[in-house]
Amino acid sequence: MTDNFTELAQLYRDTLLDNVMPFWAQNSIDWEQGGYYTCLDRSGRVYDTDKFIWLQNRQVWTFSMLYNRVEPRPEWLKIAGHGANFLAEHGRDPQGNWYFALDRSGQPLVQPYNIFSDCFAAMAFSQFALADGEAWAKDVALQAYHNVLRRKDDPKGHYNKTYPGTRSLKSLAVPMILANLTLEMSWLLPSTELDRVLDLTVKEVMTDFLDKERGLMFENVAPDGSHVDCFEGRSINPGHGIEAMWFIMDIANRRQDPATINQAVDVVLNILNYAWDEQYGGIYYFMDADGHPPQQLEWNQKLWWVHVETLVALVMGYRLTGRAECWTWYQKVHEYTWSHFADPEHGEWFGYLDRQGEVLLDLKGGKWKGCFHVPRALLMCWREFEQLAG
Q: Are 141 and 126 in contact (CB under 8 A)?
């Protein structure tokens, strides 16, 4: 790979604008019944028409965000509005909670069993409101955001399968997503609310979930931040930990807090040293903190989002601190990621590899992979390298 920051910026820019976004614009829009198809095979053909709320909202966010931050292309706004209108009509139950899945026509399939659908709805409609200027979209964004705040301490509510009171655990996913979501919503929130939520989420992530001795980010801890010796309590999700750290870096940079930036970089480097597969390359999907067999049978797969979020964290960490370890690791992860996940023949990126790095599923989108992690990472790395190039 090149060490030329200008060339790297161009690589990420061209891949985003000329390869990845055209794939979604050409293949994923359901012009007949609304919203988007996300289940796309390698060449972009639709193989399932169900519509998953996470991915619907993420695609609204992506096209709105590119319209706001890259270029106000009318076709991007049209695609974003197409999804936003479908979701505003079909996405919520009568109480305002966002479903998990709909059928093609918008009829609900899966109940609103977690708040992550609401998180991505708030993100999506905030960006769409910024792009389109529609007051109703602001209202949808704020309603979803306050739903998240209301439910964050009990995100599954009555859909929770665990027996109450025996083994209470809280998940890193909630504060890390809330931290990033709150930054996304900053233009809509009073400064006091913005600062309050950011303070709480940064403190929770860096105090309760960070194991200071090991320097690793745990996926689940007890409500007081202590460790619980069970499968869930020992679980390390390297991708989540690394993604959370670039969220923290982003917040700390806005607050001119270099100590927290360096602490987040330390965690990224610790996770990579712990979770890199020395035999075959790439980052493991799940690990057990004590070296026991993980409960997830897919623990040794190599996933797209883990690797692209790591690229973001490393280039951001390098730009903010200049630490050589960030650049050394960036080069290593870049080489693996671009040589294994990118698909120059059909566009977009593969999502799932086996441990050896062979493509496990040749889909480009499905129930969990959509138009989000790859384009967001490409844009962020493009912009980071532009700044490094000066």
A: yes
